[in-house]
Amino acid sequence: MLYLAAALIALLGIAHSVLGERYILTRLFKRDNLPQLLGGTAFTMQTLRFAWHITTVAWFGIACLLLLLAENKLTPNSALLTIAWTSLISGLLPLISTKGKHLSWIFFFAVSLILFWTAA
Fold it and tell me: Which parts pass through the membrane (predicted)?
């Protein structure tokens, strides 16, 4: 059952990103009344995009935890590493998509570094 749960949450993440990008974000970005942050709408759109897709990253992290649990390999160390990788990938999204202007990447990287350090 844990394998099924992991597969379902991973599929949910994929569907969330693909369908959200196609049916929500692209339509939203065609509007002419988006807030203009940091001088324009580009930052607003990139923030909305990474915030949308970061949910999928989190769900993949949960799926990995469920797989570790199913394999009876979930240990404090494996949980720390899974969350560290999830945080690292989560930090890459705002760093790349907003060219570092959205500062959440600093916190994601800090969490990731702390967890990698703790797991070592």
Answer: 50-70, 77-96, 102-119
**Cα 56 from Cα 9, distance rounded (Å):** 9
CB burial readout 90-118, b (16+ within 10 A) else e: bbbbbbebbeeebebbeebbebbeebbee
Q: Please, which residues have CB within 8 angstroms of residue 115's CB and are 6 or more apart in sequence?
A: 80, 81, 83, 84, 87
Q: What is the 3-state composition of the chain as percent helix, strand, coil, each rounded to the nearest 5?
A: 80, 0, 20
- pLDDT of 89 > 90? The answer is yes
What pLDDT does residue 77 have?
Answer: 98
